[in-house]
């Protein structure tokens, strides 16, 4: 029910964007759109907790987030075509329709729990109270690394398009086609990461099932984003953006699986807090790029800062442990996952 409501709301605000005739109304509608959209991924996290055992949550998160990337990648040429053919107002009206249809389908067919409820075995450790979890080191690290991930990722859906067009004198159509590539590579990364998370969880490397994909992802992201200003042709720049996006998206499935691990029944609230930190990262990224460019006269400053932040995220993940095989307490910086479901 909750997911259907938030999707229907954000589609309504998407369509209402086309009615804007003043800046204040536009800002209000887009703000409300963001408020509605924010409930989607936390609601999905709680859905996965209700429906899936721990060893299947990695791929589920990967599939979910790959859909977001595919939608974003296809949106570049689609929105340009709709705006050119019908005008930007009609484009927004039309973009709200598919989500409404999805919400109606979800209300008809989805149930909050499987018909046969799967009851967890008694937990080996009493779940951490929600308020205590919010102010724990595991939560702080999850939020910090997600802030950094979004700081890096959102250059691909904010300033990458004008960056490519300005630096390489591309037409809008050319820049739109190039801009699809990093997002599509990120969609593939989500599937790969989700598969690796679940594979490692079922192996003797379970303690690394969240950490290893995330550490490698941030390492790749740091390398890719650092390379962007060093190349001198659009194909190489897009390849560097794609490598960075691929790396960041490798961190998404372990991040959300980690939140379900430490949140249990509070998975929605815990993941929402992490997602909020990511939103601040996106806001910082969108504003840092033009500000740093004006201040230094060099767009490369942003990319070097982003690379350094990704290195800090790697440090965070080396100490982020949540799996039941590690049997440690909150005082040692770990929250324990419940026993596997039967």
Description:
This protein has 342 residues and is mainly alpha-helical. The protein has one domain: Growth Hormone, Chain: A. It has 15 helices and no strands. Helix 1 runs antiparallel to helix 2, helix 3 (40-51) packs across helix 13 and helix 11 (211-227) packs antiparallel against helix 15 (300-318). The longest helix has 30 residues, at 57-86. It is globular. Residues 119-125 and 324-342 have low confidence and may be disordered.
CATH class: Mainly Alpha
Q: What do we call the CATH homologous superfamily? A: MFS general substrate transporter like domains
- By DSSP (H or I, 4+ residues per run), the number of helices equals 15
* CATH architecture label: Up-down Bundle
User: How would you sum up the major sheet?
Assistant: none
- Uncertain runs with pLDDT below 50, 5 residues or more? 119-125, 324-342
State the CATH topology.
Growth Hormone, Chain: A
Question: Quick check: average pLDDT?
Answer: 82
Helix content: over 70%
Secondary structural class:
mainly alpha
SSE order: HHHHHHHHHHHHHHH
Characteristics:
342 residues; mainly alpha; 73% helix; 0% strand; disordered C terminus
Task: Write the topology of this structure.
Layout: H1 2-17, H2 23-37, H3 40-51, H4 57-86, H5 88-95, H6 97-109, H7 130-134, H8 137-153, H9 160-168, H10 172-201, H11 211-227, H12 234-250, H13 252-263, H14 267-296, H15 300-318
Helix pairs in contact: 1-2, 1-5, 1-6, 3-4, 3-13, 3-14, 4-5, 4-10, 4-13, 8-12, 8-13, 8-14, 8-15, 9-10, 9-12, 10-12, 11-12, 11-15, 13-14
